[in-house]
Amino acid sequence: MENIDKSKPVLVTGATGYVAGWIVKKLLDEGLIVHAAVRNPDNKSKIGHLERLAVDSPGSIRFFKADLLDEGSYAEAMENCELVYHTASPFTLDVKDPQKELIDPALKGTRNVLNQATKTPSVKRVVVTSSCAAIYTDASDVHQTPNGILTEEIWNTTASLEYQPYSYSKTLAEKEAWKIAESQNQWDLVTLNPCLVLGPATNPKTATSESFTILKQLGDGTLKMGVPNLGIGVVDVRDLAQAHFNAGFLPEANGRNIICAHSSSMLEMAKILHLKYGDKYKVPSSALPKWLLMLIGPLVNKSITRKFIRNNVNITWKADNSKGRKELNMSYRPLQETLHESFQDMIDHQLI
């Protein structure tokens, strides 16, 4: 791909989101013009933090009304853009109607944004925020891989509408993105597959993401009896924003890219936080036994089924991040730094 013209605007869909906030900040800090596609440009409580970021940076921002399910609604926002970041997709595990709350916005939204890219002659590259959830469902899946490690070649085959519908939504959406990309030759597609994203929010008061729920539960006493020892990967939201920037502007960026700093676990995270905050907050430092989780898990949270516990607790999780390190020039901050700054940010904003 030829170089992206930095004097042209860059579109970010779902601009009020947690990850998107840091992408917008990075683009503004680099002096770029950001076209921020949001559901309601008049809602100051949702966009105020982005306006403030623009004031303090050499870049500028314009807001456009757009909706994932409203076909053609991204046309105005995409005009004259050579680069499109599609980050908009719901990340929630507590859903009543997975088809309506997860699958439709993820799948139809991807279709809507990428079909618009084909209709917009200026677009040269689309970067889609996918997820490691499009690669695996449960930590046990990792152990079915050829070398016991997740790579970009692997696709999620175990999620469904009934089991882990979030992972299913990300898998369907990314597959659709590649299908659309291959049906045209005007723009190229790069997808990023981050693991669990942690780190401070650009809008702590209105931030909604499962990431905050996990940290909150580690600090507010919900898990004071012990933590489910789930194997997971972790990446800092600020490093993920850098990965998006590099994926957009490095001509050699291509294909899928696992963006994961640390192959970790809930227990390791709890222990790191306990060391610093354990005297003031009810941060656990030990794991709940698997048999006990089997008994109480399904009662506490309906998404913690016995199948989920069997497939994720006390099972190591491992991903290969070498492609992103090499081709996207990625390096990552220490896990301790990410956890401490995320947790402190939530304390400072009285969320814990």
Automatic annotation (TrEMBL):
Q: Does the keyword Ribonucleoprotein apply?
A: no
- The leader peptide range reads none
The protein's matches in SUPFAM superfamilies, at most eight in alphabetical order, are given as:
NAD(P)-binding Rossmann-fold domains
Identify the Pfam families for this entry. Answer: Epimerase (PF01370)
| Cited InterPro entries | Epimerase_deHydtase, NAD(P)-bd_dom_sf, NAD(P)_dehydrat-like
What molecular functions are annotated in GO for this chain?
Answer: oxidoreductase activity, acting on the CH-OH group of donors, NAD or NADP as acceptor
In this chain the NAD-dependent epimerase/dehydratase domain maps to 10-244
Write out the entry's keywords from A to Z. Oxidoreductase
Report the domain of life of the source organism: Bacteria
What is this protein identified as?
A: NAD-dependent epimerase/dehydratase family protein
What taxonomic ancestry is recorded? Bacteria, Pseudomonadati, Bacteroidota, Cytophagia, Cytophagales
